[in-house]
Specification:
eight-stranded parallel sheet; three-stranded parallel sheet; 3 helices; about 20% strand; elongated
């Protein structure tokens, strides 16, 4: 009888330990927390360091606070949510290669010193200001369908593709991008003189509107 009771106790303890282990992470946004719990259950991940991919789409998420603990994440996709700003220190995510924050309500974004980042998706946000710096492995950025009028970058040695069409850019630095192969900058109020400069760079494919008044 004692042995049977002991065995039952061990079972309850094991179940409690497993349940507790599965709850060893928390973030400030309840919708994000719910999504992370769902991912953890599916993948049998128990702590922030276990997470590799985080995909939370259409969950009405408003904050990313707490995600800085998920230091091994390679892909972070918070697509189609309610973010108004990037309120987390992304530099803590040393393994991050893909960042998708498209279709949110972010008005300003500054991404810097993300050593592993290769792809960034920020389209359809309402962005007015975008600053990129020290993204030494970045290959592609999609920031189209925003309201960007202030765009600055520095140290993007591997950037190959840039999508910035349908913004409010009056100018853009088309130089200092040694690996650039393709830029779509249509539907921006840029001057014809800048388009002429683009056309002279034969090693890069530029999509533009010619005379800004045409669109």
């Amino acid at each position: 009888m004692n042995k049977r009771l002991l065995a039952i106790c061990y079972c309850f303890l094991a179940l409690f330990a497993h349940t507790s282990a599965a709850q060893t992470f928390s973030v400030s946004d309840p919708k994000l927390q719910q999504c992370l719990q769902s991912i953890a259950k599916k993948e049998q991940w128990r702590q922030p360091a276990d997470f590799i991919d985080i995909k939370c789409h259409g969950n009405n998420i408003r904050s990313l606070q707490g995600l800085e603990a998920f230091t091994n994440v390679v892909m972070l996709s918070i697509y189609n949510n309610k973010l108004s700003r990037i309120d987390v220190d992304l530099t803590r995510l040393k393994q991050l290669k893909t960042l998708n924050l498209a279709r949110n309500n972010i008005e300003q974004a500054e991404l810097a010193k993300l050593e592993s980042l290769e792809k960034v998706y920020l389209f359809s946000n309402g962005l007015r200001s975008l600053k990129l710096g020290g993204l030494t492995k970045l290959k592609e950025i999609k920031a189209n369908n925003n309201k960007i009028s202030d765009f600055h970058y520095v140290d993007l040695p591997r950037l190959e593709k840039m999508y910035i069409f349908n913004n409010e850019l009056e100018t853009i630095n088309i130089y200092d991008l040694p690996s650039l192969q393709y830029m779509d900058c249509r539907e921006n109020p840029m001057p014809d003189e800048l388009y002429d400069e683009m056309d002279q760079l034969e090693h890069i494919t530029f999509l533009h509107d010619g005379n800004a008044e045409d669109w």
